[in-house]
Amino acid sequence: MIFAGTSCSSVARTSKGDAFAARYADFTYCGVDAVKQSNQTSCGAASLAAVMSYWGKSTSEQKILTASPPTEATGYNLGELRDHAAKSGFHAFVIGSEEGQAAATKLRDHLGKGRPVIVAWECPFGRYFQKLPVVESLDSRTISPLRGWQGVLKKHFVVVIGFSDDLQRWLVMDPAYGIVSVDRGDFVTFWRGGSFAMLLIAP
């Protein structure tokens, strides 16, 4: 298990290494590398590639898209991601029957056992995390902070990789940005939009 701090002015590309561990010293997290989505609808493939790579399977977003194209133009659903993971030799389960605190407790349990989890959520278009300009992101662009994110939301897949010791923040690998820290309230709101659904993958 890796322990990683809440003061972060940039978006990380990996949760491995001493610098990340020092910055996130009050977090419990899994060492996941960020995988950038190549288009607006490939967040599911990028998230799955990140988790499969974490478990030692050499793959990429493009390999997943080619091997198992999504049935809808809007991208994958959790069942399709589960099926691809299973075809690749993993145990894969979609979980989504519990609400709020019960779902969060189950999520923390998996993370505490070293299992990153893909979750479905609805979040704002644009940057929804922290309040400082992005210094480093997957595409190295500086992005202005989003003000008052209530409004139009998008369906999105992210990989939850950790949580703070005080349970007030979550670490997320967002394939649109990189590894970010998300406030508990926003996280729950976004996840509620995805019906608290999650995909657990393990060897």
From TrEMBL:
This is C39 family peptidase. It holds the Pfam family Peptidase_C39_2. One of its GO terms (molecular function) is ATP binding. It comes from the Bacteria. It comes from Sulfuriroseicoccus oceanibius. GO terms for biological process: proteolysis. One of its GO terms (cellular component) is membrane. PROSITE patterns: PEPTIDASE_C39. InterPro entries: Peptidase_C39 (IPR005074), Peptidase_C39-like (IPR039564). Transmembrane segments: none annotated.
